[in-house]
Amino acid sequence: MREVILSVGVDIGTSTTQLVFSRLTMENCAGSHAVPRIQIVGKEVVYRSSIYLTPLRSAAEIDAEALTRLVREEYRAAGISPKDVTTGAVIITGETARKQNAASVLEALSDLAGDFVVAAAGPDLESVLAARGAGVDRLSETQSVPVANLDVGGGTSNIAVYERGNLKGVCCLDIGGRLVRIEHGRLTYLFPKLQALVTAHDIPLKVGAPADEGTLRRVCDIMAGQLAQALHLESPDSCHAGLYTNGGSPLPGEMRPGALCFSGGVADCVYGEAVEEAFRYGDIGVLLGQAIREHPALSAVPLLRAAETIRATVVGAGVHTTEVSGSTIHYAQGQLPVKNVPVLKIPEEEEAPLEAFSASIRRQLPMYQTGGREGQVAIAFHGGRYTGFRALQALAAAVIAGAEDIIARGVPLLLIVEADIGKALGNAVNVQLGHRKDVVCIDSIRAHSGDYIDIGEPIAGGHVVPVVIKTLVFNS
């Protein structure tokens, strides 16, 4: 059995917006007499859009009309209709994610871009997508040292470290080429965090002042130094902790890379692309790329070539967001797809005894009641210790006891299990509820509290469902 689906990635960044369409091939990798084991066995980018400047109405608002028109035109150019798209991601990244109307723009685009395209953003997710789009996960498999990808864009620098193909850590800093903007030889915009950073280093910089190349090179040297500190190549200074996006966390202390890759709009300048005019793009991106390339601590680490640079995040969004569930799943007909469902995760230490399991669900549910509204919630847990018949029956009873409030609502009971017990557990819950409640139970998927999940309509003969896990859906 082989099935091909179409995926789209739309990346709305601080500086640029672009799309890719990808073809994902799924295949049953199990034997003819075994339980089906559906896997994505092929990923191919089939169309890359032009790269556009992200349309803005003002410094605080995205031009939603122009953006929607841009996406429609690229669909037509690709010869693809929204109804042809099965999965993918629309993500809004970097400083653009902080615009006033970011959420409404994403909602409009997700409706345009197919029935199962997600609206997702966030520095952790962007770090992973950029690294995978740049090919660093695969590249790290050939290296004997950890490899860090730095996706340096207009508003943020997203860092992901891989070792032998495994993700080891992510972080994101407010360091980017569009944090200083220049028109007619003068500074027209200065990001507040950057203003505080340069003030701490006694550099005179303010909006309206002439754009002095020497001064701005000093600023970029300091920004490059902050990236070196994030990689533990230099000791952090007093300003460093305040530069993490949304108050995020740094890389683990032992996570020091032995090789570097760069992606994002600034990457080509890091790799040595010659640009004669320092302010060619109306910002400091060229100078920042040069400062990164010449920084002593960064240049001392071997530099590897990324498979994608400016297109890395959008390729990651179009190719690497989708997973497939396990083949032993249970779902109620007509209840899929579901989109943007918050995840309530039960920690493994609270899975036993089962009284603690039920209590964990009841304790956490009030956090998902927004403005008095009780919507859909996905309950996620490992479940690996409950594999026998009696254990599964007891687990089903504990789920029902903990999820009474959800069962009373007019929404399906949605369960996400890491262990391969989805079908058996879903059937057990369904029977114990007397078939009076729609139950969806998928397995082989790992999710965390704070994630959001999208589950698509069943594919591959109904054996599996496409799944997208979204972390930190919107920057604040």
* Reported CATH architecture of the largest domain: 2-Layer Sandwich
CATH superfamily membership of the largest domain: ATPase, nucleotide binding domain
The largest pleated sheet is described as: 7 strands, mixed
Structural category is alpha/beta
Give the beta-strand count: 23
**Helix proportion of residues, in percent?**
25-40%
CATH class of the largest domain: Alpha Beta
Would you give the CATH topology of the largest domain? Nucleotidyltransferase, domain 5
As residue ranges, the low-confidence spans are 472-476
Number of helices: 14
Q: What general form does the structure show?
A: globular
Overall number of structural domains: 3
**How much beta, percentage-wise?**
25-35%
Taking strands numbered 1, 2, ... along the chain, how are they ordered across the largest sheet?
15-23-22-16-19-20-21
Q: What's the pLDDT, averaged over the residues?
A: 87
N-end to C-end Cα span: 44 Å
* Rg over CA atoms: 24 Å
